[in-house]
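ERR on first pass: missing label on line 2. Operator R.T. fixed the label and resubmitted. Corrected input:
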Amino acid sequence: MILVIDLCYRNDSLSRAEFVGPVERILREAGAEFAVRHYIAAGAPEIEAADAVILCGTALKDTGFTEHPEMFRWLLAFERPVLGISSGMRALAAAFGGGTEPCYEIGMIDVQVLAPDPLFAGREGFRAYELHESAVRVPEGFIPLAVSDRCVQAIRHPSLPLYGLLFHPEVRNEWAIEQFLRLVETAQ
Amino acid sequence: MRLGVLFSGGKDSLFACWKAMQQEEVACLITVVSQNPESYMFHTPNIRLAALQAEAAGLPLVEVETAGEKEAELLDLARALLQAREQFGIEGVVTGAILSVYQATRVQRICRELDLWCFNPLWHADQEAYMEELINSRFRVIIAGVFSCPFDASWLGREIDRRALDELRDAAQKYQITLTGEGGEFETFVVDAPFFSRRIVIEEASRTYRNYNGILRIERAGLVEK
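pass 2 clean. output:
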C-alpha cells in the first residue's frame, strides 16, 4: 500500500483536489493500492504499514507544513521508497537537514538530468511544470539528480530510494510517478 | 478565506465556484470581458450574461473590459483582481482550469505578484468523474459554441444531460477530443447550478454555424423560480 500524504494547509482543503487529486488519479489508473492522509493525521501504524510514501505539493502561498518539522521526522527511519513532490521535496530535504534558498519558477521549464537513475528511465532531459518560490539545498550525502538553469530539480538519498522532485510530475510528466511505482514493486 | 472566482459563465468556472463554496467563502465573481473572439485567456460567447448568472447565485460581480491582445489582457486580469481585492477583500483566486498550463501559469504568476492564493480545484481532474459529478450535482449546462468535428448545428443549445454525455464520450474516443471541451472543442453556458436561487431561462437566441464552427448567441434571457 502506498501512503499518499497531503501537505496542504488543512485536512480536506480546497487545494487537495489540485495537489493530491492528480496523484490519486495516476495511482488509480496504474492499479496501485493507496491511502491518503493529511500530514497532521498520518499515524505511526499507517506509516509502518506503507510500502512507500508520496508527499504531495502545495499551493505557492501554502507553507504551513514547514512549521511542523516534527511531523516528518519519521522519514529518517522509513527506509522504503519515498517520492517528495515540490513542497514534499522540501519536507523530505528538511527532515535530512537540507535548507531552502529562494528560487522562483512557475510554468514549463527545461530540466537536465545530471546522474542517470532508474527514476528517469534513460531520459537526459525533459520539460517540466514548476510551481515554487524556494528550492532545496541538497542535504548532506544526497545526490543531485537533475537541474534547471536556476536550481536543483531532483535529489536522491545516497543509498535508499528516497527521492525529491521540485517539478510537478503529475502535470505532463506522469511517467515519473509510474516509474516510481516500478521502483516500489522492485523494492518489495 | 475570502475568495474571488474567475468567471466565464461556463461549466468549469461555475463548478470550481461551487467547490470553493464548500471549503471557503466566495466573496465575488470576477469576469474579464474580451473584445477579441480569439482571446487566449478569456472565453467570449455570452460573457455579458455573467451578470445574470451572478444575480442567480446572489454574488457580486467584478467586470473588467479587455481588448484581448495576447499578453496585454493579463494586465487587465491583474486590474480585475486588484479591484476585487479592494472592493471585496479577497485573499485568493479560484479558476476552473483543467489542463491548460498556459492559462494556469499566467494566473499563478499574477496571483504571486498580487500576493493572492490561487486555487484550481479541477486541475488535472479525472474528466469522466468530473462530468458525472457535474450532472449528478444538478448543474444544468448547455452547449453555447462548437469549434471542432464532429459537432453539427444540433449541438448548439443542447443540454449536457446523461444522453449527451454518452455521445460526448463516444465523440471523445473517436475524434480524440477532450470530454470536457478543455481543448476548445466546445464552449458551455450554465443555466442552473446547485447554488443558484433562481434558474436562467433563455428567451431568445440566435445560431450561427458553418463547417463545425458555431455559436449560440443568447439575445434575451431572464431568471425564474426553480
